[in-house]
């Protein structure tokens, strides 16, 4: 893991989010505030703008500084939550561990930090319905050697989590005001999170 790999992953995420912009915007207009896609795209742009400045720095510093940048420039709950994820991840980097184990430990820490900040958990129709299953799969697979197989499992966990939000009643955010009417709609944060996970996993699978 190094700064180049982190920014390469961000580039892949940008391509996927941009490609699905209209879909995510429509999902958010149905049950959210309508600004989720704007905030996500701005967060990615602000992050990629740091590439030259952070080139060659240690992964924990890169993630922490990207997190701080997102926290201070991106509005909405998604900005604060993704910043929390990245800053939480930065706290657990250990250069003595393999990338595989590092990512499992770091991602778990970041997701736990998100849960605390958002006072949310699995089954509440949020991005955590994708990120928690991915975190669990990463932990289960951290000792396996077939990286591409792990990526396939993570993709499947993310997709299953995203689809699960369709029939959930939201308890957080604007969607929570809709009650039963939020059923039948996929959570936009879950979809954008799944697309981001997918983009990273596809890069691993296709190399």
Distance between the termini: 16 Å
CATH class: Mainly Alpha
Sheet bearing the most strands, described? none
At CATH's second level, what is the architecture?
Alpha Horseshoe
Shape call: globular
Give start-end ranges of low-pLDDT stretches.
Answer: none
Name the beta content range: under 5%
Can you tell me the CATH topology? Serine Threonine Protein Phosphatase 5, Tetratricopeptide repeat
Oligomer: single chain
From the alpha-carbon coordinates, what is the Rg to the nearest angstrom?
A: 16 Å
Tally of contiguous helical segments = 10
Q: Which class best fits the helix and strand makeup?
A: mainly alpha
Give helix and strand order, one letter per element, not per position: HHHHHHHHHH
Give the integer mean of the pLDDT values: 88
Architecture overview:
The protein has 207 residues and is mostly helical. It has a single domain (3-205), classed as Serine Threonine Protein Phosphatase 5, Tetratricopeptide repeat (Alpha Horseshoe), CATH 1.25.40. 70% of the residues lie in helices and 0% in strands. The chain has 10 helices and no strands. It has helices at 3-19, 21-31, 36-48, 51-54, 59-73, 76-90, 99-118, 128-141, 147-164, 188-205. Helix 8 (128-141) runs antiparallel to helix 9 (147-164).
């Amino acid at each position: 893991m190094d700064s180049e790999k982190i920014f390469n992953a961000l580039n892949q995420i940008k391509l996927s989010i941009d490609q699905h912009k209209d879909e995510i915007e429509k999902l958010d207009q149905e049950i959210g505030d309508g600004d989720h896609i704007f905030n996500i795209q701005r967060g990615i742009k602000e992050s990629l703008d740091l590439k030259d400045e952070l080139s060659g720095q240690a992964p924990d510093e890169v993630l922490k500084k990207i997190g701080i940048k997102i926290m201070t420039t991106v509005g909405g709950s998604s900005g604060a939550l993704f910043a929390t994820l990245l800053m939480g991840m930065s706290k657990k980097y250990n250069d003595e561990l393999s990338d595989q184990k590092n990512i499992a430990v770091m991602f778990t820490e970041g997701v736990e930090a998100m849960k605390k900040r958002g006072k949310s958990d699995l089954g509440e129709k949020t991005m955590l319905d994708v990120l928690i299953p991915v975190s669990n799969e990463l932990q289960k697979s951290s000792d396996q050697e077939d990286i591409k197989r792990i990526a396939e499992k993570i993709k499947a966990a993310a997709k299953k989590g995203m689809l699960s939000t369709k029939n959930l009643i939201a308890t957080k955010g604007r969607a929570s005001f809709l009650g039963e009417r939020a059923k039948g709609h996929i959570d936009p944060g879950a979809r954008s999170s799944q697309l981001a996970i997918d983009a990273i996993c596809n890069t691993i699978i296709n190399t």
